[in-house]
Amino acid sequence: MNTITIPKKEYKELVETRMRYDFLCRSLKDDIFSPPPTKNTGAVMKSFKVTGKYNAKFLESLEKGLSRSKYFKS
Fold first, then answer.
1. Angle in degrees, 0-180, between the axes of helices 56-68 and 41-51, rounded to the nearest 10
2. How many CB atoms lie within 10 A of CB 66?
3. How distant is the alpha carbon of residue 19 from its chain centre?
4. Helix (H) or strand (E) run with residue 11 in it
5. 9 or 73, higher pLDDT
6. pLDDT at 39 over 70
């Protein structure tokens, strides 16, 4: 076995790059472009409101966008 010595900074960069690559690979295995599991605008809005993470302006914008969406109209 050969031993190679590299600076700690370079090692950290290599580890971070590898972790990002692994994350990207795992993300791409999932179908990120699949449609949402429901077409019910009310259910989607309720799910977002229940979390308490989103402000009223965002929720208004989301509801407006969902109302314009062809997916939710069909």
1. 160
2. 19
3. 17
4. helix 8-29
5. 9
6. yes
